[in-house]
Amino acid sequence: MMFARLLARLGDLFLGLLRELGEMAMLLVNCLLWLPRPPYRIRHFFGQLEFIGVRSLFIVALTGLFSGMVLALQAYYGFRKFGGESLLGGAVALSMTREIGPVLTSLMVTARAGSAMAAELGTMRVTEQVDALLAMAVHPVHYLALPRVLSGLIMVPLLTVVDVFIGILGGYFVGVMLLGINPGTYMQKMVEMVVASDLYNGLFKSMVFGLLLALISCHQGLKARGGAQGVGLVTTRAVVYSAVAILIVDYMLTALLF
Amino acid sequence: MKAKSTWGPEVKVGIFVLVALLLLAYMSLKVGRFATIGWRAGKTYYAPFASVSGLVLNGQVEVAGVEVGRIKDITLKDHQAQVELLLQPDLELRQDAQATIRTKGMLGEKFIELHPGTAAAAPLEAGGTITDTQSAVEFDEVLRRVPSVLKDIQPILSDVRAISQSLQRVIGTAEGEASLKEMLDNFQAASKSLSQIAKDLEQGRGTLGKLLKEDQLYRQVQGTMTELESAIANLNRFSTRLAQGQGTLGKLANDDRLYDQAQQAINRLNRVAQKIDHGEGTLGKLVNDQSLYDETQKAVKNVNQAMEGIKEQTPITVLGTIGATVLR
Amino acid sequence: MHLIRLVDVHKAFNGLRVLDGLNLTVQQGEITVILGRSGTGKSVLLKHLIGLIRPDRGQVLLKGVDLARLPERELFSVRKRFGYLFQHGALLDSLTIGQNIAFPLQEHTSWPRSQIEEVVTTKLAQVSLPGVEHKMPSELSGGMQKRAALARALALDPEIMLFDEPTTGLDPITTTTIRQLIAETVRGLKLTAVVISHDIELALALADVIAFLHQGKILTQESPVSFQLSPLPEVQQFLKGEPD
Questions:
Q1: Residue A124: its chain C contacts at CB < 8 A?
Q2: What is the chain B residue with the closest CA to A97?
Q3: How far is CA A224 from CA A227, B223, B233, B243, C234, in A?
Q4: 20 to 30 A Cα–Cα from A95, which one of B22, B126, B251, B310?
Q5: What's the predicted TM-score (pTM) here?
Q6: Would the CA dihedral through B190, B195, B198, B199 be positive or negative?
Q7: What is the ipTM score, two decimals?
Q8: Where are the domains of chain A?
C-alpha cells in the first residue's frame, strides 16, 4: 500500500512537471503568436528593457568584478602547482565567457528581475488587474508576458557582455597587479586561448537563459492564486525554478555547443 | 503619455545597449582575429601535403613568424591533402617557395610556415601550387620510429664501446701497464745502445762517416753530439774544478763508471726528446697496433654518418631517442 | 428583448460546484442586480458574461451568439462592447490614473494623443474626479479608485456595464455617491447593466430586475417590489439577514 502511494506520488510529481513544461511551452508559443500583432507599445517595452537591463547593470557589474577576481585567485592557486601561472589570463577569460558570465548574470537577473516580475504579475493576478486587462480586450500575454520575455532575451546577453568584460578586468587586476603576472603574457595568453566562438556561444547560452527566466517568472506570476501568500509562493517558485532550469539547460547546452 | 523623468527609459536603454554592443565589438575584435577581413580578396595558392593531420580550417599561415594568411580549404586530391591558402595580396611568392607544417610549441596548434622563395626564381602566380612542401612530424610518429632508430644506433654504440674497451685495455688494466712498461724498456734498451755508440764516437770522429751509412741517422747523431759536447764540456769543467778543489771527489769524478752512467741517462733523455720532436702521431701508432687504429677510425666515421642521419630528423627525434635510450 | 441569456450553465472548481444549472435573462436597457450571499459564485457568474471564465456546460448567449464556444480572438472583440468595474477597481498600478483611463483607448483606437487626453478629462469629470490624471492609483482612496475605474470602464463607451460589488468596502456616504453615479451613468447613457452585490439597499434602489443566486442557481428573477414579497424562504432569510 505504502509503495503504491509512493508510486502515485511520484506519478503526480511527474505529471505536474509535464504540465508546467506544457504550460510554459504554450506561453512561449503564445508570445510568438502575439509578437507580430499590433499594437506594439514601444514605450511600455522600453520600460521593461530598462527594468531588466539597465537596473540590473550595477549588480551584474559587481558580481562580474568579484567573480573574475576570485577566478584569478583560484586559478592561480591551481596553475602555480605546475608553473602555469602565465595561463591565468586565458583561464579567467575562458571561464568568464563560456560559463561564469552567462550563468551568473542569468542567476543575478533571476534574483533581481525574475522575482520582481513574478511578484508584480502575481499581484496583478490576485488584484484582478489581469482580469481587468482581459475585460478591456487586452491579452495579458501580449501586454505583460511578451515584453518581459523579449527583454530577457535581449538584455541578459547584453548584461553578460558587461559581466564578462568586467570579470576579465577583475581577473587582470588580481593577476597582474596583485599576483605579479606579466601583463603582456597575461593578455597574450588570453587572446590566444579564447576564440570568438567561446564568446558567442556564451552569449547564445545567456540568450536562452534570459528567455527561460523571463518565461518561468511570467508563467509563475500569472498562475498566482489567493492573496499575498499566493504571490509570495509564486515568487519563490519563479526564482527556484528559473535557477534550476538555468543550470540544467546550461549543462545540456554546454554538452551540445562545445 | 508623458515621460516620468527627463531621462526616459528609452535614453537609458539606448545608452546601455550601445555600451554593451561596443564592449562586445571590442572583445570580438580582440579574440576574433578579424584582421583577416581585409584579405578576403587575397591571393589563393595551393599546396599538396603528404599529411595535414592536426591542421584546421582558418589556421594561420606565417612567414618568418608573421601571419600572412589563412587556410581556406583542405581537400583530398590524388591521395594527398590539397591545402588552399588565402594570402595577403601584397605577398610575393617564387617558384621555389616552400611550405612546412609546423607546430606552435610542443603540443600547440598546427600552422603553415612559408618561405616565399629566392629572388632568383621566377615568380609564382596566384592560383599556383607550392610544390616544395613538408608535412609536420607528428609526435606519435616520432615515437613510432624510435625503435628503428635505436636499431640503427645499436652498432654504433657497440663500436664506440669496443674502442673505449681497447683504450681501456691499453691504458687502464694491468696488462696495459705491462705493455707500457715493456715499451719503456725498449726505449731504455735503445738508448743504451745509443750511448754505446756515443762512447765509440768519443774515441774517434774520423771513422764516424764510415761506420754510419745513413745520412739521416748521421744528422741525428750529429745533433745529439753537439748537445752532448756542450754537456760534456760542462761536466768536464765541473770535474776539473772538482779535481782541483777536492781530492776524493776528483777521484770520484774521474771514475769511469760514474761517467758512463751520466752519459747513458743523458742519451736516454735525448732519444725520447727526439721521438717527440718528430711527433709520431697517435697512441695506436706508438704501440704499433695498426688494427686498433683502423677500428677507431672506422668507428668515428660511423658515428659521423649516424650524426648526419640524425640531423635530418627534427630535434624532437633526437629528444625522443635520447629519452628512449635513457629509459632503456 | 433579451440581450444576454444564460442557459443551464455549470461550472465547478476542483470538484466544487459553483454554478449548477444556472439560467438567467438580461433585458436590453435594464439594470439587473444579482443578489446572493458571499461565496455563492456571483463574481464567477459575472465573469462568464464576458468569457473570462468559460462554463463547463451550458450556453452564454449574447444576442444569440454563444460566448462559451467563441474562439478567443472573437471573444476579444466582443469584450470591447462591455465595461467591467471590478470590486477593487483593478486599476493598473504601474500607470497613472490618466494612463489607466487612456489605456483602452490607446489599445483599441487610433486616436491622436490630444483626443485621448480630452476623453480622459471628460470621463474623469463624469465620475467627479477632475485633476487626478497624474496621480498613481495607490495615492487615491478606495472610493476614488472605484470612480476612476468606472471612468476607465466607460472610456470606450460600452453597451453593457458589469459591476462587481460596486459598494463593498465603502463608507455609507461613498456608497450613496457611487450608487447615484452608477444610476446616473447607466440611465443617462441608456446602457444595459448587470450588477452583482449583496447590498439589498443598492439593489432595491437601482434595479429594474433582481435575480437571486442561491447554490449555483437563479432561484427567482423579478422586479424589486415583487422580490421583497417573494414567498421563497431563502429570499426571505436573505432579506431579513437571519442566520442559518
A1: 92-93
A2: B27
A3: 8, 127, 134, 141, 35
A4: B22
A5: 0.67
A6: negative
A7: 0.89
A8: 45-257
